[in-house]
Specification:
- By secondary structure, the chain is an all-alpha fold.
- It has one domain (about 15-50).
- The protein is built from 2 helices and no strands.
- It has helices at about 1-30, 35-50.
- The protein is elongated and about 60 Å long.
- The N and C termini lie far apart (about 60 Å).
């Protein structure tokens, strides 16, 4: 039964690491001003129309 504890702890560590990565990405995403987001979206639309 000891290996179940190790597997459980490894799974818990994986979930925690994923949560940290998601939180960092969210902070990065929220750091943009609305004007920056609008400018980036307009650039993406213009770029996709070139294909």
């Amino acid at each position: 039964m000891r290996w179940w504890k190790i597997v459980g702890l490894a799974g818990l560590a994986g979930v925690a690491a994923t949560g940290v990565a998601v939180a960092r990405a969210e902070r990065k995403r929220r750091a943009y001003t609305p004007e920056e987001i609008r400018t980036r979206l307009h650039a993406r639309v213009a770029e996709s129309g070139k294909d």
